[in-house]
Specification:
The protein is mainly beta. The protein is built from 2 helices and 20 strands. Helices cover 8% and strands 50% of the residues. The strands form 4 sheets. It has an 8-stranded antiparallel barrel. It has a 5-stranded mixed β-sheet with strand order 11-19-18-13-16, with no helix packed on it. It has a 5-stranded mixed β-sheet with strand order 12-20-17-14-15, with no helix packed on it.
């Protein structure tokens, strides 16, 4: 009986320890151009199920709403839905606000790391709500959220200390995982960049590393389109471009719009064999960023 009681107390203690509380403070960016303070306070159990509250706007004019969702530490993703409003105070906004559904991913932006993603929502009668983006970028809070996986992934054995289970390696993107991009070069109209090239292929990855706000581009290589009318996504788009002969080649990125957050921005990785170049192309609508590639013997 004493042994059973000991086991029960150990399991109960483990459950209490594994229920972690987190706070995330960030911003809710609406497609109207308005930006509101946005905060989450929640607990997550050993299975990653979360419950707590969201706080929109700034006190004393804030709105408190119950949330439920899932925290996946391995893939660094937070999914949650606002369910019921606990209280709401008056605030003036031109946006049509609804209860938020969000899928947030941890990623590197042009200014640092962030947990970010689009919001979705609709009234029961399917009335469309104003879209937007949630962004949390306080390093200490993100560190606490994602770097404590070992507390959740433990093996409990009698008479031994819990042993952490190693987190799985990141899923490869098809590029040599040993390649480490150099510091990011910025190109825009009137500011170009030239790279000496050694291989016979340009492997280009292009995506929106900031807020996915509907930026659309076309990419040309020596005047020939290799990616046309493409909406930049969070996922990287891979384009392989063969090079014939030696000398200069021109890779240009044309901004077809400016999305909801001007200017148009495109994150790019160019792979020359095991050499990688990191580039941020930014332009106003109708402008092009030029990258010169000089193939050498």
């Amino acid at each position: 009986m004493k042994k059973l009681l000991t086991i029960f107390l150990l399991l109960l203690t483990a459950q209490i320890v594994l229920a972690q509380e987190y706070t995330l403070r960030g911003r809710l960016k609406m497609n109207t151009g308005e930006v509101f303070a946005y905060k989450l306070v929640f607990t997550a159990n050993a299975h990653g199920d979360i419950k707590g509250y969201s706080y929109t706007y700034t006190e004393p004019n804030d709105t408190k709403t119950a949330i439920v969702g899932v925290l996946d530490k391995h893939s660094r993703r937070l999914t949650f839905s606002e369910k019921t409003i606990a209280y709401s105070h008056d605030v003036h906004t031109t946006a049509y606000m609804c209860l938020v559904d969000a899928n947030l991913d941890y990623e590197h932006t042009g200014t640092g790391n962030a947990l970010t993603g689009p919001i979705n929502g609709a009234e029961a009668d399917r009335t469309a709500c104003t879209g937007g983006t949630v962004l949390f970028d306080l390093d200490a809070e993100l560190e606490a959220l994602f770097n404590t996986a070992e507390k959740f992934d433990t093996v409990i054995t009698m008479g031994h200390k819990p042993k952490p289970v190693a987190a799985p390696a990141p899923t490869p993107s098809g590029i040599d995982p040993k390649v480490i991009p150099v510091p990011t070069d910025k190109v825009t109209k009137g500011v170009e960049k030239t790279y000496e090239w050694h291989s016979d292929t340009v492997v280009a990855e292009i995506w929106d590393g900031g807020t996915v706000d509907g930026d659309k581009v076309s990419v040309y290589f020596n005047g020939v389109p290799v990616l046309a009318d493409y909406f930049l996504m969070r996922q990287k788009k891979v384009v392989r471009i063969p090079i014939s002969g030696y000398g200069f080649n021109a890779l240009s990125i044309l901004a077809l719009n400016e999305g909801s957050e001007p200017p148009n921005t495109a994150d790019i990785l160019l792979h020359d064999g095991k050499i990688t170049y990191s580039i941020l192309a930014y332009n106003n609508k109708g402008q092009s960023a030029l990258i010169k590639i000089k193939r050498v013997k």
